[in-house]
Amino acid sequence: MWGRAATLEPLLTAIDSATAKPVDCHRAKCVALTFDDGPGPYTDALLHHLAVYRARATFFVVGQNVGAYPGVVRRAYAAGHEIGNHTWSHPNLTKLSAAGVRSQLARTDQAVKAATGVRPKLVRPPYGALNAAVRLRTARPMVLWSVDTLDWLHRDSDRVARKTLKSVRPGSIILFHDIHPSTVRAIPRVLKTLSRRGYTFVTVSRLFGGDPPHIVYSGGLLSMT
């Protein structure tokens, strides 16, 4: 699955969230669960499910929602989850001016830092909409995904879980949305089944050795920038 990434040794080291011992994600079954568009009223329940399995995830948050739920973001960060920037109001960044893109990212950075004390290291563009002009607006990794659960379209917990379990592979970055209660209800089944299959749940940064390169990740391919 890794293709060209197999030659990049820094990408192969992650931290097992349960044991804090080094794990080689080229050999072990590492997977990154990512949650977009929150935080929201169901995110605390999701944090509980993740804690039961000592799973670490990455939350790509919308800045205006961080302002509404700063305590949720603070708890997620304190629990060891990664907080990424998903813009302030979820626009298509390719339709904005350079100043507009910078503002969307900067306002969310400020909201996350106010809640957690740290600035997000990763960016996920809404809708996966990305072009060269947008990529010039930040030096941070632009992270897409390799498994789309379509949970925003199919608000059905069983369907979301089946799609995830059918599509996951070692090294997958899986896209969920924690603003949907049906998605949050699907997560215990996902965690239980993948744990039995021997998967380790890591953040996106840990999937890439704790220091991701400037990348775009989509469909299992790495594109260096």
UniProtKB/TrEMBL annotation:
<keyword id="KW-0479">Metal-binding</keyword>
<protein>
    <submittedName>
        <fullName>Polysaccharide deacetylase family protein</fullName>
        <ecNumber>3.-.-.-</ecNumber>
    </submittedName>
</protein>
<dbReference type="Pfam" id="PF01522">
    <property type="entry name" value="Polysacc_deac_1"/>
</dbReference>
<dbReference type="InterPro" id="IPR050248">
    <property type="entry name" value="Polysacc_deacetylase_ArnD"/>
</dbReference>
<dbReference type="InterPro" id="IPR002509">
    <property type="entry name" value="NODB_dom"/>
</dbReference>
<dbReference type="GO" id="GO:0016787">
    <property type="term" value="F:hydrolase activity"/>
</dbReference>
<keyword id="KW-0378">Hydrolase</keyword>
<feature type="domain" description="NodB homology">
    <location>
        <begin position="29"/>
        <end position="202"/>
    </location>
</feature>
<dbReference type="InterPro" id="IPR011330">
    <property type="entry name" value="Glyco_hydro/deAcase_b/a-brl"/>
</dbReference>
